[in-house]
Design brief:
6 helices; 2 domains; single chain; Immunoglobulin-like
Length: 344
């Protein structure tokens, strides 16, 4: 009987040990989704881009989970509007993929997509797993021109990769500009690299659960809409395959929160819009009854027009074409800021 009890105890302990080992393995090795990233190289003066980019935008719009960046190299046209705002880094990222002088070109997960780009090019990259995770933090304030970014790389699985290239940059989600090639709305416009434009070499965390933190600061330029600035981080192997990526829109905070409660219902304030946008001649404010007055500012922060809001109709006939911000003020002094573009 004692012998049988010993055998029984042995098998029970053995199964408990195996169960614990398997359970521990599941907890230890927890892969994460490999985020899909698209990198489009375009040019605002390229007529081929004008013909092809809308189809690319349309395909990408069906997959909002895909991270997007659009670069504007100085070739084939050096007077491209967006290229001129940051020619060196746009060109450096283009040379990173050895695609300088050829637009439009689009890369998914570091791979060049040839032929007519459509949704069938995106689907094979969805649902993949990675042993590394890229997590970003991105913050700015309603005043000042300084923003902070942190990028943390986690090892989530036993992949043997020991080093990689980390590229971190800032994009603006949408920019309205009537380009010579006929495109008026430009998406995920590359603004600034926070690492080198080809990425910086990093040693990856060695143990599962370990992480490496990288911190950056950058200056928000005049004309950028800080409320739609997004930071993107891309982790790549030397052969340009994307290990994983991450993104984070800037969290905008007010240096001093108001002591008095809001004068209008917050839910209604969130649904205030300007239309049409871009506008020509007249722009209208939805839920205009919430506000008493307005002030319009140009991208340099100068006040260019003020008035009583009335029925929500604002004449903009006197404003030159460009980007503007309107401050809508309610009776308590609370301000709602919206962005719009004026067409000639």
């Amino acid at each position: 009987m004692v012998y049988l009890n010993l055998i029984y105890t042995y098998f029970v302990m053995r199964h408990l040990f195996l169960y614990a080992l398997l359970t521990c393995s599941v907890i230890t090795y927890s892969q994460v989704n490999r985020q899909v990233v698209s990198e489009l190289f375009s040019n605002t003066r390229c007529s081929i881009c004008g013909a092809k980019d809308p189809g690319i935008y349309q395909a990408l719009a069906k997959f909002p989970q895909v991270t997007r960046i659009t670069y504007y190299p100085s070739a084939p046209y050096s007077n491209c509007f967006f290229s001129q705002q940051n020619p060196i880094e746009n060109d450096e990222r283009t040379n990173h993929y050895n695609t300088y002088g050829s637009t439009p070109d689009i890369f998914l997960q570091g791979q060049l997509i040839t032929g007519v780009f459509d949704t069938s090019d995106i689907r094979p990259f969805l649902g993949q797993q990675s042993d590394f995770e890229v997590v970003l933090r991105h913050s700015a304030t309603t005043t000042g021109d300084s923003a902070s970014v942190s990028c943390t790389v986690f090892r989530r699985g036993p992949d043997t990769l020991s080093s990689a290239q980390l590229f971190v940059c800032v994009t603006e989600d949408i920019v309205s500009y009537m380009a010579p090639n006929g495109i008026n709305n430009h998406f995920s416009v590359f603004r600034k690299a926070l690492t080198s434009a080809s990425g910086m070499n990093i040693a990856l965390p060695q143990q599962v659960g370990d992480s490496a933190l990288y911190s950056f600061k950058y200056k928000i330029s005049n004309g950028w809409d800080r409320t739609i600035l997004t930071t993107v981080g891309i982790l790549q192997t030397p052969d340009l395959n994307v290990v994983n990526s991450g993104k984070k829109r800037a969290d905008i905070s007010t240096p001093e929160e108001p002591n008095e409660p809001l004068g209008v219902d917050e839910a209604q304030m969130k649904h205030v819009i300007l239309y049409p946008n871009p506008a020509k001649g007249t722009v209208y404010v939805s839920n205009s009854k919430l506000f008493e007055s307005y002030a319009i500012y140009n991208v340099n922060g100068a006040s260019v027009q003020r008035g009583v809001l009335g029925e929500g109709e604002i004449s903009i006939h006197s404003l030159p074409a460009g980007l503007y911000f309107v401050h809508l003020r309610d009776k308590t002094g609370e301000v709602k800021t919206l962005r719009f573009s004026v067409l000639n």
